[in-house]
Specification:
The structure is a single chain. This protein has a single domain, classed as TIM Barrel. Helix content is about 45%, strand content about 10%. It has 15 helices and nine strands. The strands form two sheets. The chain has a seven-stranded parallel beta sheet. The protein has a two-stranded antiparallel sheet with strand order 2-3. α4 packs parallel to α6 and α9 packs parallel to α11. Keywords: Cytoplasm, Decarboxylase, Lyase, Porphyrin biosynthesis.
Length: about 350
């Protein structure tokens, strides 16, 4: 059963923000903007405070998390903050031996491939991630009317790191397990769904006013496999947090053929990468959901004029949507010029001012 907050979403300072209104498909003063991976290596102030502190350690220091989360809000004037963490943090918190290797990503010491390995995936309790509750308490105080987005990795994407042992291009061990032992696969995803749901609940109860489920690598699957082998677990996560009434965003890369199913899994907002124009994405997702996206992050390496032209294309395709949150089609690339991001926020705000 989903819990109740003492402070309901409707009484929070961020309730009337453009971002939350767009998620609810209500009229907005301007199209809200935030960027996936808006904190991080594109910002010199981030590199400075992170110096000498390993990634996973930085995620456990509430003051540092607060500072890093606020940096892109101060600099770019984005319409939402995203909690600074990583999708593997809840796995680390329940005792999985893993690390984030610079330039590589999450690496798992002992991959999960057999039934007895499931025992290592115990339930997550709020005490396991007390630093998250503490950091979000600090953050919501500092953010005032700017909403905070909580997030988690979706069961498939988490499974891919756990089963492969690290980043993977083809997800061969993951697919071998999914096709070869459907019952073990289903049990694995079900456990990950419970861990993910518990982690999102902690963030919402601490004050996050929206949540995003990152199923970054699920675009590797055909729709039939997604429906049978992944959707039940992702739907369980969305159902578990439905009662809070905070918008639920669902995002993956290369998911053009899955957009309808990803909406069906229970999202209020479907994230779209740059490969599908937003008007076409809206047809695939169907009515009753807002969309988020979808400027190609690589466009930011081009001239300011080209960035504006490509941004107009995105906004024109979004003109008929019920709700639109402007974002990139995937995360900010590490060597992006931060000034290009600041200009982009201003351009979208000016161009869509109503
Ligand atoms: O030391 C460092 O700076 C390491 C780089 C780094 C950072 C800054 C990693 C390693 N994670 C993060 C933070 C992070 N991770 C955020 C920041 C919050 C913000 O947006 O401002 C977020 C949202 C994530 C989530 C995440 N981690 C995803 C989903 C989002 C996406 O980009 O699709 C995924 C797939 C990961 C795994 C991961 N963690 C880090 C890397 C380099 C990767 C990808 C590795 C791979 O290619 O598989």
């Amino acid at each position: 059963p989903s819990g109740q907050q003492t402070e309901t979403p409707a009484t929070s300072a961020a309730y009337d923000s453009a971002f939350l209104k767009a998620c609810r498909r209500e009229p907005v003063p301007h199209t809200p903007v935030w960027f996936m991976r808006q904190a991080g290596r594109s910002l010199p102030e981030y590199l400075k405070v992170r110096e000498g502190i390993p990634m996973l350690e930085s995620c456990m220091q509430p003051e540092l998390v607060t500072e890093i989360t606020l940096q892109p809000v101060r600099r770019h004037k984005v319409d939402a903050a995203i909690y600074f963490s990583d999708i593997v943090v809840p796995l680390k918190a329940i005792g999985i031996d893993l690390d984030i290797k610079p330039g590589v990503g999450p690496v798992v010491a002992e991959p999960i491939r057999r039934r007895e390995d499931l025992d290592r995936l115990r339930a997550l309790t709020p005490d396991d991630v007390a630093y998250v509750t503490e950091a979000i308490g600090m953050l919501t105080g500092e953010l005032g009317a700017t909403p905070l987005i909580g997030f988690a990795g979706a069961p498939f994407t988490l499974a891919s790191y756990l089963v492969e042992g690290g980043p993977s291009r083809n997800h061969e061990h993951t697919k071998a397990l999914m096709y070869g032992d459907p019952q073990l696969w289903a049990d694995l995803l079900d456990r990950l769904a419970d861990i993910t749901a518990a982690f999102l609940k902690v963030q919402i109860e601490a004050g996050a006013s929206a949540v995003q489920l990152f199923d970054s690598w699920v675009g590797a699957l055909a729709p039939s496999d997604y429906r049978r082998s992944v959707m039940p677990a992702s739907a369980k996560v969305f159902r578990a947090v439905e009662g809070y009434g905070v918008p639920r965003i669902h995002f993956g890369v290369g998911t053009g053929e899955l957009l309808g199913l990803m909406g069906e899994a229970g999202a209020d907002v479907v994230g779209v990468d740059w490969r599908v124009p937003l008007d076409e994405a809206a047809r695939r997702v169907g009515p009753g959901k807002a969309l988020q996206g979808n400027l190609d992050p690589a466009v930011l390496f081009s001239t300011p004029e080209a960035v504006e032209a490509k941004t107009r294309e995105v906004l024109d395709a979004a003109a008929g949507l019920e709700g639109h949150v402007f974002n990139l089609g995937h995360g900010v690339l590490p060597t992006t010029d931060p000034d290009a991001l600041t200009r982009l926020v201003e351009y979208v705000h000016t161009r869509t001012a109503r």
